[in-house]
Design a protein that fits this description.
CATH architecture of chain A: 2-Layer Sandwich
Low-confidence stretches of chain B: 96-106, 168-183, 446-469
CATH architecture of chain B: Orthogonal Bundle
Mean pLDDT of chain A: 93
Shape of chain B: globular
CATH topology of chain B: Ammonium transporter fold
Order of helices and strands of chain A: EHEEEEHE
CATH topology of chain A: Alpha-Beta Plaits
Largest interface: A-B, 8 and 17 residues
Number of domains of chain B: 1
Number of strands of chain B: 4
Low-confidence stretches of chain A: none
Helix content of chain A: 10-25%
Distance between the termini of chain B: 73 Å
Strand content of chain B: under 5%
Radius of gyration of chain B: 23 Å
Oligomer: heterodimer
Number of strands of chain A: 6
CATH superfamily of chain B: Ammonium transporter AmtB like domains
Chain lengths: 112, 469
C-alpha cells in the first residue's frame, strides 16, 4: 500500500476530489497547510505598506491506495490540480506498512 | 438659582449628547480592539474602559475645577468650590439667558451639572484615543498611572485653553460665544484671547491626543516585528462596529457642542455627516490608486478621519466647506498612516496619522474654507487675509507642542520610575493572558475550559462536557 500526498492550490480541491471519486477512490483526508516551494513566498500591500508573505496557503490531500493504483491516482491528481502556472504544488507517494480499519479490525488492502 | 432659568429643550438635548459621547469610548474600544491582534484585544478594550473609570473620578474630584473654574491668566482654571462639584449641586445654571447674535449662536441655560457631565465625556475619549498608539506592548499599570497624570497636567489645562470660553459673572456681560465672539479678558487663552475657532475639540481632543500618542510611542519603542510582520486587524467586523458607534456618538460630540437644540445645531449635524462621508470616499480612492484595493479598514479609518477633521470646523463652515475638509482629511490621513513605516515610529493603530493629522486639517482649514456667516471673519475663499489661518495655526501649534513636550517628559519619568513596557515574553504570549488572565476567544474550547494557552490534550477533562446516553 502507498500513501499519496498532494499539496495543491486550495481552489483546486473540488476538482481533485471529483477526479479522485471518479477514479474510484473511496476516502481521503484534507487539511489546510502553509508553505513554500521554488516559487518562494510573495509580497502583498496593505494600508500602503508592503509585506513579504513567506508561507503561501495550500491544501494537502492524503489518500491511501493499493500499490497497483498508486501511479494512476497520482496522475489523476496531477491532471486535476494543474493550472500550468507557478505554485501548482506537488504530489508524492510513500510506502505504508500496515492499515487497520478501526471498526472491523480488517488489515492491509482490505482496510482501504 | 432660579429653576425657571433652565431651558428644558437645551438641557435634555445636551444630556442625551453626553450619553452619546460616553458611548464613543466603548465604540473606540471595539474600533481599536478589532484592529489589534487577537492576543491583545482585551487589553486594548481595557485601556478604553479604564479611561472611563479613572477620568470620571478625577474629573469630579478636581478636573472640572481646573478646567472650568475661575480663569487664571488664560492658562488654567481653579475654583475651590468646584472641587467635588460641590457648588454645582444646587441648580447652578451655565450660560446667559439672553438670546445670542443673529440666532446663530444660541444661549444655553443649562444646569452646570449637565455641562460638567457633558464635558467629562470629552476628557474620557481624549485619554482613550491615545491607547491605540501603544497597542500590544504597554504595561497596564503604567497606562493607569500615565492617564491619571496626563489628564491632570495636559488635558485639563488644554481643555481650559480651548473650551473655557469666558462665562458671564453673575449679572455681568456674557463673553465668548454668548457675547458674539471671543472678546473677553477672561477664559481660556485660545478661545478668548487668541480668538481661534474650535467648536468641538480639534485642538483640545484630537491634536492633543495625537501629539501625546506620538511622544508616548517614541519613549515606549516599537512592537516586536514592526515593519516585518503585517500585523493585520484580527477582527474587522469589530472595527466596523466600533466605527459605527463612534460615528453615532460623534453627533453628540459635535452637535452637542452647540450646547443647545437650535438651527445652528442642524448645521453642525449636516457638516459632521457630509465630511465623514466625503472622507470615506477620499480614503478609498487613495487606497485604490496606491494599493490596488479598497479595504474595510480604509472605510473605517476614512470615516474617523473625516469626523476628526470636521470636529473643530463643524460650526464654522457651510456644507461645501465640510465636503472639502472631509476630502482633504480622508486623502491626507490615508497617506499619513504610511509615514510610520518610513520614519520608524510605531504608532500601532494610527492615532497620529488620523487624529493628529486630521485635527490639524480641520483646525487649519477653518482659515481656508471658513464661512464668515459663522466666523464673522473672512477666510481665504472669501477673499480674506491669512490672518484667520495664522490664528488657527497658533492654536494648533501651541496644543501640539505643549502636549508633545509634556507627554514626552512624563513618559520618560514613568519609564525610569516604574517601567512602561511589558516583558518580551509577555509581548509574545499576549497581554490578555499574561496581565489580565483572560483570553478573548475560546473557540473550540479545547484548552481545558481555562483561560490559559493551556496544555494538551485538547478537550480532556473539560468539566462542562456532559455525557448523553
Amino acid at each position: 500500500m502507498r500513501l499519496v500526498t498532494a499539496v495543491v492550490k486550495p481552489f483546486k480541491l473540488d476538482d481533485v476530489k471529483a477526479a479522485l471519486e471518479a477514479a474510484g477512490v473511496q476516502g481521503m483526508t484534507v487539511s489546510e497547510v502553509q508553505g513554500f516551494g521554488r516559487q518562494r513566498g510573495h509580497t502583498e500591500v496593505y494600508r500602503g505598506a508592503e509585506y513579504s508573505v513567506a508561507f503561501v496557503p495550500k491544501t494537502r490531500i492524503e489518500v491511501l491506495v493499493d500499490d497497483a493504483d498508486a501511479t494512476r491516482v497520482v496522475d489523476v491528481v496531477v491532471q486535476a490540480a494543474s493550472t500550468g502556472s507557478i505554485g501548482d504544488g506537488k504530489v508524492w507517494t510513500t510506502p505504508v506498512e500496515d492499515v487497520v480499519r478501526v471498526r472491523t479490525g480488517e488489515r492491509g488492502a482490505e482496510a482501504l | 438659582m432660579d429653576p425657571e432659568l433652565i431651558d428644558g429643550a437645551n438641557t435634555g438635548f445636551v444630556m442625551v449628547c453626553a450619553f452619546l459621547v460616553l458611548l464613543m469610548t466603548p465604540g473606540l474600544a471595539f474600533f481599536y480592539g478589532g484592529m489589534s491582534r487577537s492576543k491583545n484585544v482585551l487589553n486594548m478594550i481595557m485601556m478604553s474602559f479604564s479611561a472611563i473609570a479613572v477620568v470620571s473620578v478625577l474629573w469630579v474630584l478636581y478636573g472640572y475645577a481646573l478646567t472650568f473654574g475661575e480663569d487664571r491668566s488664560g492658562l488654567i482654571g481653579f475654583s475651590s468650590g468646584l472641587l467635588g462639584l460641590s457648588d454645582l449641586t444646587n441648580n447652578a445654571v451655565f450660560g446667559a439667558v439672553e438670546s445670542g447674535a443673529d440666532g446663530v449662536i444660541n444661549t444655553y441655560a443649562l444646569p452646570d451639572l449637565v455641562f460638567a457631565g457633558f464635558q467629562l465625556m470629552f476628557a474620557i475619549i481624549t485619554v482613550a484615543l491615545i491607547s491605540g498608539a501603544v497597542a500590544d506592548r504597554m504595561k497596564f499599570g503604567a497606562w493607569l498611572a500615565f492617564i491619571s497624570i496626563w489628564v491632570t497636567i495636559v488635558y485639563f489645562p488644554v481643555a481650559h485653553w480651548v473650551f473655557a470660553f469666558g462665562v458671564a459673572e453673575e449679572g455681568g456681560e456674557a463673553a465668548g460665544f454668548a457675547n458674539g465672539f471671543f472678546a473677553a479678558e477672561t477664559g481660556g487663552w485660545i478661545v478668548n484671547r487668541l480668538g481661534a475657532f474650535d467648536l468641538a475639540g480639534g485642538t483640545a481632543v484630537h491634536i492633543n491626543a495625537g501629539a501625546a500618542a506620538l511622544a508616548l510611542v517614541l519613549v515606549l519603542g516599537k512592537r516586536r516585528g514592526f515593519r516585518k510582520e503585517a500585523m493585520r486587524p484580527h477582527n474587522l467586523p469589530f472595527v466596523m462596529l466600533g466605527t459605527g458607534l463612534l460615528w453615532f456618538g460623534w453627533f453628540g460630540f459635535n452637535v452637542g457642542s452647540t450646547l443647545g437644540a437650535t438651527a445652528y445645531s442642524g448645521l453642525v449635524l449636516i457638516n459632521t455627516q457630509v465630511a465623514a462621508a466625503a472622507a470615506v470616499l477620499a480614503w478609498l480612492l487613495v487606497e485604490k490608486l496606491r494599493d490596488g484595493h479598497m479595504t474595510t479598514l480604509g472605510a473605517a479609518s476614512g470615516a474617523v478621519a473625516g469626523l476628526v477633521a470636521i470636529t473643530p470646523a463643524c460650526g464654522f463652515v457651510n456644507a461645501y466647506g465640510a465636503i472639502a475638509i472631509g476630502l482633504v482629511a480622508g486623502a491626507l490621513c490615508a497617506v499619513a498612516v504610511t509615514l510610520k513605516n518610513r520614519l520608524g515610529y510605531d504608532d500601532a493603530l494610527d492615532v497620529v496619522g488620523v487624529h493628529l493629522v486630521g485635527g490639524l486639517v480641520g483646525t487649519l482649514m477653518i482659515g481656508i474654507v471658513g464661512d464668515q456667516t459663522h466666523t464673522l471673519t473672512e477666510s481665504l475663499v472669501d477673499g480674506g487675509s491669512l490672518g484667520l489661518l495664522a490664528t488657527q495655526a497658533i492654536a494648533a501649534g501651541a496644543v501640539l507642542a505643549y502636549s508633545f513636550v509634556v507627554t514626552y517628559v512624563l513618559a520618560t519619568v514613568l519609564k525610569f520610575v516604574m517601567g512602561i513596557r511589558v516583558s518580551d515574553e509577555e509581548e509574545v504570549l499576549g497581554i490578555d493572558q499574561q496581565t489580565h488572565a483572560e483570553t478573548a476567544y475560546e473557540i473550540g474550547g479545547g484548552i481545558g475550559g481555562g483561560s490559559g494557552t493551556g496544555a494538551l490534550p485538547a478537550g480532556a477533562a473539560r468539566p462542562s462536557s456532559v455525557e448523553v446516553s
